[in-house]
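Review form for a predicted model. The reviewer records the input and the model, then writes brief findings.
Reviewer: anonymous (R2)
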Amino acid sequence: MIKLIIGNKGSGKTKKLIDAANEAVKNSSGNVVCVEKGDALRFNISSGVRLIDTENYEISGYGEYYAMLCGIAASNHDVTHIFGDATLKIGGGIDGLDSFLERLKGSDIEYVFTISCDEEDLPARIYEIAEKY
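Model under review:
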């Protein structure tokens, strides 16, 4: 399942993501991971959530982001949730977002991503792949 938290800068997307990740770690029987660009979340995310900064691995573009998420899933079969903040910054914009999400579709992992834009700026296909959070 893929869920998107959509809104412009300052609309509370990251706060929703933090709350969702902290709630997931309380209720999950497996592992919860949060991927971000930078280290702004380190003081707000529960210590039970594995926090990964894409800048430490020089991840840029949806291809590299997808590979990183696959590596996380492959290295630990107990991952139940992956949260991703700053998705468009990591991936490089709206172009390619739908293909990225399509590749994640069908996984047993629940994905939640923040998307910093207006809902109407996203291609309609996005809503066939993912649901709004």
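Findings: The two ends are 11 Å apart (CA to CA).
Further findings: Residues 10-119 form a domain with the Rossmann fold fold (CATH 3.40.50).
Recommendation: see findings above.
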